[in-house]
Amino acid sequence: MKGKDLKQTVIEKYGEIARQSKDQAGGSCCGSSCCCSGPDYTVFSENYENLAGYDPDADLNLGCGIPTQFAGIRKGDAVLDLGSGAGNDCFVARALVGESGQVTGIDFTEEMLKKAGDNNLKLGYTNVKFVKGDIEKMPLPDNQFDVVISNCVLNLVPDKKKAFREIYRVLKPGGHFCVSDVVLKGYLPEKLRTDAEMYAGCVSGAIQLNDYLDIINKNKFLNLQIHKQKEISLPDELLKKYMTCDELELFRNGQVGIFSVTVSGYK
Asked: Coil, strand or helix: which one is 66?
């Protein structure tokens, strides 16, 4: 899919999810693998319920990790969340930065921005804001943030090189990013990958883990670290359609597959 088409698809699908209630999203084709006519956007989601700052209204189960868990966010930090959605990770980050910090969320889906703004108004935070913008060209100044986070978003960005260049630009010297994202390991038959994208919407745009890490390294980030990996569990009936017994064994032992990873690096 061309970059412009992928962005439009993201806007349409995530706008549709934002217009639904959480219960509706969990039981519709945009949120449940039991509905065979649409992908499950929740298969990688993690449980946020015990985290400070958690707001159930802001959690649409669209993430693939908990980047704030490994981001080393401190009181007073300025934090940027890329693809902030309904505000879930922003509000968790706000609990970490406290009254003296600042949290900014950026998204280009109008419905998500409205949902996040409504949630923020309800919570009464004055040091959390949401701005509209494209991650490949953010309307934000250089050297502004101590920490950049993102959750299951960068894989959907067509030009990941531009995205990481922008992360580098907006970070303060010595600042760092911590992102959770979807990547591939090893060779996946093309038809399997296509069906996997239909099974889990967040697979779209995912690239090989080594290529992902190479993009980060080429953008001059230091101290690159993978904090966590989690494999998506695809149904056996889907795998057996496209894989031999040997290929299936490689998939099941983690040498080949679709993973969420949480990665950090420093400017």
From this structure: coil
Report how far residue 265's alpha carbon sits from residue 20's, in angstroms, rounded to the nearest whole number. Answer: 35
How many Å apart are CA 165 and CA 12, to the nearest integer?
A: 26
- Strand duo 171-185 + 145-151: pairing: parallel
Q: Where are the domains of the chain?
A: 43-191+205-266
For residue 184, count CB atoms less than 10 angstroms from its CB and return exposed for 0-12, middle for 13-18, buried for 19 or more: buried
**pLDDT(59) > 60:** yes
H helix runs in the chain, sequence order: 3-19, 22-26, 88-97, 110-123, 160-170, 190-199, 209-218, 236-242, 245-252
43-191+205-266 topology per CATH: Rossmann fold (3.40.50)
The two three-digit tokens of residue 237, written as one number: 């009936």
For 99-141, the DSSP string reads: TT-EEEEEES-HHHHHHHHHHHHHHT-SSEEEEE-BTTB-SS-
- How would you classify the pairing of strands 102-107 and 78-82? parallel
Taking only the tens place, the pLDDT of each residue in 61-87 is 999 999 999 999 999 999 999 999 999
Closest residue by Cα to residue 205 from 62, 2, 38, 35: 2
How far are the Cα atoms of 56, 128, 218, 226, 234 from residue 43, in angstroms, in the given order?
18, 28, 31, 21, 10
The whole model's pTM is what?
0.89
